[in-house]
Write a structure and sequence with these properties.
The chain is α+β, with helices and mostly antiparallel strands. The chain is 34% helix and 26% strand.
Length: 321
């Protein structure tokens, strides 16, 4: 963190904010379970494991809303707001007023609320007393696929997918097995093998080391909220995928790796076919700015980009420094 962010961090702690981590997972889980959310970045899994990467975050309940503050490498701080499940006693305007004062107290001239779904944007833009600047960056938009499209193999649009999948169809030495609390740590074996072929400095330059997140995942993986599959070849685990079914509308693919070319495509296909065919969308998150991951997501199947908006609030009559 920058010196400015360090001062902000200490100020937020003095105001009753607490560090985000494994201990806060159950709280984020409750807000996520009861709330209406379709963005991966606002799920309990990502909120509490992202701090294992290169992020720092703190949280506090402001009125009935779960508010977290995230520290990024650009030197700014960004607030996320998780809504309560039932009709709150306090309005969004009251929460914005409170967070605006906190942001100013932390040394920032405006309030930045991030990760806002497009369907909720008007709620934030309608808050009175502020000049509200809203925008998005498709580098951080999330890739969502209709499960019907992921399972569709016919036509020219799916030629690439068919060619990648046919390497594994009807092969006796290939199997897909469920992930459980007892075997979740097999992910580390797969990850270690994958890491051995990577440039650590390049890999960590994006968001940090994913192996740290796997440590947290193994602690919170409980077989009810979170699920996963392993891909075996010749009885050796060579790939994994961790996912969650939110409701009939959306499921999330959180983490995954494969040490055999195109095996991860097969794992996603089988995961959807076996467990998620009754869900409309699979959200796989954003591409982290990695060219290879972007290419993979774009060619996986027909997809949509779900935008995440940033709203910058400045009191009317004031200008951002």
């Amino acid at each position: 963190m920058t010196e400015r962010q360090n001062r902000a961090y200490e100020y937020l702690l003095s105001e009753g904010f607490l560090p985000v981590g494994r201990e806060s997972h159950s709280l984020f889980r409750r807000y996520y379970d009861e709330g209406d959310n379709m963005l991966q970045e606002m799920t309990a899994m990502i909120c509490t494991t992202a701090t294992a990467f290169a992020f720092t975050a703190v949280y506090k309940i402001v009125y009935e809303y779960l508010c977290s503050v995230w520290f990024y490498q650009d030197g700014e701080i960004y607030f996320n707001v998780q809504w309560p499940s039932e009709r709150p006693e306090h309005s969004l305007a009251q929460v914005v007023d409170a967070l605006y004062g906190i942001s100013l107290g932390a040394g920032y001239p405006s309030l930045r609320i991030a990760t806002i779904e497009e369907r909720f944007l008007k709620r934030y833009e309608a808050v009175k007393g502020y000049a509200v600047s809203a925008g998005y960056n498709d580098n951080y938009s999330e890739y969502a696929y209709r499960t019907a499209d992921l399972l569709e193999l016919s036509g020219g649009v799916n030629l690439n997918k068919r060619n990648r999948l046919k390497k594994f169809f009807n092969k006796e030495n290939v199997s897909v097995r469920p992930m459980t609390k007892e075997n979740v740590r097999l992910c580390f074996e797969i990850e270690e093998k994958w890491c051995g072929r990577q440039d650590c400095a390049y890999c960590e330059s994006f968001i940090g080391c994913e192996k740290k997140a796997l440590g947290l995942i193994s602690d919170i993986f409980d077989d009810t909220a979170y699920k996963g599959v392993f891909g075996y070849i010749d009885d050796v685990p060579e790939g994994y995928a961790i996912y969650e079914k939110k409701n009939a509308k959306v499921a999330f693919l959180f983490f995954g790796k494969a040490n055999v070319s195109d095996l991860f495509v097969y794992l996603i296909y089988m995961m959807v076919k076996l467990y998620l065919s009754d869900v409309e969308y699979l959200n796989t998150g954003y591409d982290m700015g990695k060219a290879g991951l972007r290419t993979f997501k774009k060619h996986l199947s027909v997809h949509e980009l779900w935008r995440k908006y940033l709203c910058i609030f400045t009191k009317t009559g004031e200008t951002e420094l």
